[in-house]
Backbone:
């Protein structure tokens, strides 16, 4: 455990030195504050909770922004060290390879968690002070932050897998962008096209559920937008929530699995890799 914490601390220090922590926190806070005040502006007319509007807006922002940040943070975690010649030096210390990779992951996950909590939390506090939202709906907002951290962890683990698979940073960077495009943009369009083409003839509800769980971005979207009735109705997800019937426990489990599986495969491959 001590080795894990030392390596995680090193990654956090590197993030501070390279301005990753500051940049991520500032970027998330800027977008969150903008969405909080511009998105909640019409709620006085339509009688919608300002916090519900913010949760829906931040969910959409998170799906596009956080996976990209996580992949850019992690894609060169191993291959970058290899290119710089520091990986062999690191492995010369009395530390297991799985500890190196797991410690790095914990450090990067801590950076994502800090940036998300501070960035989104600043927007929540500012909205509470300005609009007087009270305490209602804050459980959904806290759930959004927790789900966002899990989503960031899932794409960080995928970034580590890419970093172990390839031999140069350019290839890892290209694959990271490709993975982001696949899960955030292409996958949902392909599933929608499949559903339209099938017209309900062969695809059952269970098959659709499985397709949604095979994308961490979709699992995050369902978790944050269908968890409470008020948010699901405002987000236009109430009908989907009735059809999908995937509870929070299943969706959280899917996100945790999206963290565990890529990270486990990356650790197994890294243990056999020649340095």
Residues:
């Amino acid at each position: 455990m001590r080795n894990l914490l030392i390596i995680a601390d090193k990654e956090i220090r590197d993030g501070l030195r390279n301005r990753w922590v500051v940049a991520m926190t500032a970027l998330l806070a800027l977008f969150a504050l903008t969405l909080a005040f511009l998105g909640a502006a019409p709620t006085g007319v339509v009688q919608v909770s300002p916090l519900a509007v913010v949760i829906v807006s931040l969910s959409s922002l998170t799906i596009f922004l956080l996976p990209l940040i996580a992949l850019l943070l992690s894609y060169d975690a191993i291959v970058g060290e290899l290119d710089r010649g520091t990986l062999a030096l690191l492995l010369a210390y009395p530390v297991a390879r799985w500890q190196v990779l797991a410690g790095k992951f914990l450090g990067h996950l801590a950076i994502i968690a800090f940036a998300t909590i501070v960035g989104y939390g600043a927007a929540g506090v500012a909205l509470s002070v300005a609009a007087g939202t009270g305490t209602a709906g804050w459980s959904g907002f806290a759930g959004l932050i927790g789900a966002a951290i899990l989503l960031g962890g899932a794409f960080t683990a995928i970034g580590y897998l890419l970093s172990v698979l390839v031999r140069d940073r350019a290839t890892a960077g290209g694959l990271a962008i490709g993975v982001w495009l696949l899960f955030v943009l292409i996958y949902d369009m392909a599933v929608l096209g499949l559903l339209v083409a099938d017209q309900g003839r062969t695809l059952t509800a269970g098959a659709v559920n499985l397709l949604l769980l095979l994308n961490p971005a979709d699992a995050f979207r369902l978790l944050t937008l269908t968890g409470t009735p008020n948010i699901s109705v405002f987000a236009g997800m109430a009908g989907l929530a009735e059809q999908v019937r995937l509870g929070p426990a299943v969706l959280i489990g899917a996100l945790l699995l999206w963290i565990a599986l890529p990270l486990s495969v990356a650790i197994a491959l890294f243990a056999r890799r020649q340095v």
About this structure: Residues 3 and 95 are 7 Å apart (CA to CA).
